[in-house]
Write a structure and sequence with these properties.
The structure holds three protein chains of three kinds. Chain A is mainly alpha-helical. Chain A has eight helices and three strands; from the N terminus they run H-H-H-H-H-E-H-E-H-E-H. Chain A is globular. Helices cover 47% and strands 14% of the residues of chain B. In chain B, a hairpin with a 2-residue loop joins strand 6 and strand 7. In chain B, helix 3 runs antiparallel to helix 4, helix 4 packs antiparallel against helix 5 and helix 5 packs antiparallel against helix 6. Chain B is globular and about 70 Å long. In chain B, 61% of the residues are buried. Chain C has one domain: NADH:ubiquinone oxidoreductase Nqo5 subunit (Beta Polymerase, domain 2, 2-Layer Sandwich), CATH 3.30.460.80. Classes of the chains: A mainly alpha, B alpha+beta, C alpha/beta. The interface between A and B is large, with 35 and 36 residues. The complex binds iron/sulfur cluster (SF4). The site of iron/sulfur cluster has 12 residues of chain A, from helix 5 and helix 7. The site of iron/sulfur cluster (SF4) has 12 residues of chain A, from helix 5 and helix 7.
Chain lengths: 213, 364, 151
């Protein structure tokens, strides 16, 4: 494949899209002498592909996975950092759960203010139409792996505002929700139970892969 | 230096809720500010038109979740005025007591939210710890931790259980002891004073013109308290004077707003004691509460954050024809650009925190 | 000033009618839309009503009704309720933001949710709903619809 083709091929440019183990779409080694002409993202893609393919082909990936999976999974389970985002009443109970009486921090729940540092998005109130795009953006800004907790009736299905012209009928209409916590308001204990449920879910469902695709 | 706009919100540690403050900065200095609301607009006024009168207490509880009791109470007063019902004396005294307890809980919530804004995370833990005591206290008669649905049209849901006075007294004594500790801690903290003194100043006449009410107005030295000026329930029979504070140079600054709320907590404890001591015997619910109403009525009350006013229009059916809510914060935040201008970006959390935003009531 | 006396004096103003006393410290009065501008100036400057509590717009199906609540910031807490009737096809009225700064967002809200136009308002645009929203939802004839598109 010539340099021209590498530049012009949109699949290659897309980053994530180009990274598959399918040999037909895999990026080939650039011809010798072309190394310096790769853009940085192309170079990173190429390195990723190379490492992934070597690890996959030699079976190292499986071995590493088997060894590190429990460790990664344990780490994910005990450091679920939620986003510090208060929507409505349930946000106060979220605060109470983080307060000294209930102290959710003993389960590793530390509230962070930047979505980039977070694993959990707690939707703790009604999602209004004006908020929906912002919430989606916040969700997309969070790094994988990420989970969403729908806290309270509002986030589950609109709650007391089900017939309002500006409230969305539940958070799961526009983003994937992992744990639903019923209640209006959700008591702090119920929120803690929700965190524990999420931990259980992570233990069962989250592979914690080395070199995830 | 070039000017630019910065968005603070809707998700921002400063906002305490969902709203967006756009500030125009010249270097570090704020030259303009535009608050943007509506991220929590649930259209309570519209859906309230489709609920029966007594059902709407569910919605009013959720108007301002930090101060649910006072909002439901304001709605119930307006509805009572519309229907011509008067709550029995014991219910009025119970209302007064729980309203003041709610006010303390709300101010503690404010304290717990305000201090982390200034970098004092310990303040959050202290505030939440003490607030929890009051929530447990309010849970005893109402059964709810946060949203009580306790005040009803024509009275309160049920009587105070025996032993409530003793429990309340114990909790209040604890808070008094701790408040003294906190006042020592904060008032003498140099960092706290530096972040508060002379920040976010507005004068009393400006505040009145902008429609600022409640603690934010009294902290400018205006003794205007609706509990006294437009008295309701058992307040006329209690002995109290509005507390005021002023900043060192006149007007209101962040520090006087902080002092104001702490002083109000002391005053509220005094009022709870008076109300519990004078509590008459009797029923807690009016004999008959009509389902239908016509005409129009309004009542205003002193909410934890300022003047709450509910205006109800009935057309003879069992649902309100029009229901309008005056939210104190809606007006206060509209004045925010005036007292943000000229300060630094780092003062924004202090200024906006000190006015005690509650987005639930603001966006309705 | 006694509320009864106050209402009586205010009823002298041209365009004013229906003066009555609702509670011991609350008066009520109706005013025509044309006379509202000078009436509000008198209210603020001569009678000392320095606080605009609330502006509510009521949809009466045949027309709109604006209800203003004014009060005096002092220990007596006197209030006045002012009603203005507006025709349905031209719901316009003079803005009072130059007199009471606090009326600013109340007028914006009335415009946003009810579609009342305040002439002379410095920045009359939507406050709670987003800019592209169609219609004024608190009107009785507003048709509910599910908003599929994003705002
Ligand atoms: S579920 Fe209930 S308590 Fe929670 S945000 Fe919704 S209305 Fe408030």
């Amino acid at each position: 494949m010539s340099r021209q083709q590498v530049r012009g091929n949109p699949r290659m440019r897309k980053g994530l899209g180009s990274r598959t183990s399918d040999p037909a779409t895999m990026m080939e080694d650039p011809p010798s002498g072309d190394w310096l002409t790769l853009r940085s993202d192309q170079f990173l893609n190429w390195v990723d592909d190379a490492v992934y393919n070597i690890a996959e082909k030699t079976g190292i990936r499986d071995v590493v996975n088997r060894v590190t999976r429990p460790i990664f999974n344990w780490g994910l389970r005990y450091s679920p950092w939620p986003l510090h985002l208060g929507i409505m009443c349930c946000a106060l109970e979220m605060g109470a759960a983080g307060g000294p009486d209930h102290d959710s921090e003993r389960m590793g729940v530390v509230y962070r203010s930047s979505p980039r540092q977070c694993d959990i998005l707690i939707v703790n109130g009604p999602v209004c139409e004006k908020l929906r795009p912002k919430l989606k953006t916040l969700y997309e800004q969070m790094a994988d792996p990420k989970w969403v907790i729908a806290m309270g009736e509002c986030a589950i299905g609109g709650g007391p505002y089900w017939d309002s012209y500006s409230v969305v009928a539940g958070a799961d209409t526009f983003m994937p929700v992992d744990v639903y916590i019923p209640g209006c308001p959700v008591r702090p204990e119920a929120l803690m139970h929700g965190f524990l449920t999420l931990q259980k879910k992570i233990r069962e469902k989250e592979p914690g892969y080395f070199l995830r695709r | 230096m070039a000017e630019m706009w910065i968005h603070m919100g809707p998700q921002h540690p400063m906002t305490h809720g969902l709203w967006n403050l756009r500030i125009k900065v010249n270097g570090e200095t704020i030259t303009d500010a535009v608050p943007e609301l509506g991220y929590l607009h649930r259209s309570v006024e519209k859906i309230g038109e489709r609920r029966k009168y007594f059902m709407n207490t569910t919605l009013t509880d959720r108007l301002c979740y930090a101060s649910a009791m006072t909002w439901t109470h304001c709605y119930c007063l307006a509805a009572e005025e519309l229907m011509g019902v008067v709550a029995p004396p014991r219910a009025q005294y119970i209302r007064t007591a729980v309203l003041e307890l709610q006010r303390i809980a709300s101010h503690l919530m404010w304290l717990g939210a305000y201090l982390p804004d200034l970098g004092l995370i310990t303040g959050f833990l202290y505030g939440m710890r003490d607030r929890e005591m009051f929530l447990n206290l309010l849970e005893i008669p109402s059964g709810g931790r946060l949203l009580y649905n306790y005040v009803k049209i024509g009275g309160v849901k049920r009587d105070l259980p025996p032993g409530f006075e003793a429990k309340a007294e114990r909790v209040m004594q604890t808070l008094e002891r701790r408040l003294k500790e906190y006042e020592n801690l904060y008032d003498n903290s140099k960092i706290f004073r530096m972040r508060n003194d002379g920040v976010g100043v507005y004068s009393a006449s400006d505040a009145i013109n902008w429609g600022i009410t409640g603690p934010n107005l009294r902290s400018a030295g205006v003794p205007f308290d609706l509990r006294q000026a437009d008295s309701y329930d058992a307040y006329p029979e209690l002995d109290f004077e509005p507390v005021t504070n002023t900043a060192a140079g006149g007007g209101s600054d962040c520090f006087s707003r902080y002092r104001q709320r702490v002083d109000e907590m002391h005053q509220s404890m005094d009022l709870v004691r008076q109300a519990l001591a004078k509590m008459p015997e009797g029923r807690v619910m009016a004999d008959s509460v009509p389902l239908r109403a016509s005409g129009e009525a309004f009542r205003r009350t002193e909410d934890s954050r300022g003047e709450a006013l509910m205006y109800l229009v009935g057309d003879g059916s069992d649902r309100p024809y029009r229901w309008k809510i005056r939210s104190p914060m809606f007006t206060t935040v509209s004045a925010a650009p005036h007292f943000l201008k000229g300060y630094k970006v780092a003062d924004v959390p202090a200024i906006m925190g000190s006015i005690d935003m509650c987005i639930g009531e603001t966006d309705k | 000033m006694e509320t009864g006396q106050l209402v009586q004096q205010l009823t002298q103003h041209d365009g004013a009618s229906d003066g009555s006393v609702l509670r011991s410290n609350v008066g009520r009065i109706s005013i025509t839309r044309e006379a509202s501008h000078s009436f509000f100036s008198t209210l603020k400057n001569d009678f000392g009503f320095d606080h605009c509590s609330l502006i509510s717009a009521v949809d009466n199906q045949t027309g709109f009704e604006l209800v203003y609540h004014f009060s005096i910031v002092d220990a007596a807490g006197q209030m006045l309720e002012v009603h203005i009737d507006l025709p349905r096809d031209t719901p316009t009225v003079d803005s009072i933001t130059h007199l009471w700064g606090g009326a600013d967002w109340h007028e914006r809200e009335a415009y946003d949710l009810m579609g009342i136009y305040f002439i002379g308002h410095p920045d009359l645009k939507r406050v709670l709903l987003p800019d592209g929203f169609a219609g004024h939802p608190l009107r009785k004839d507003y048709v509910y619809e599910i908003h599929e598109e994003e705002w």
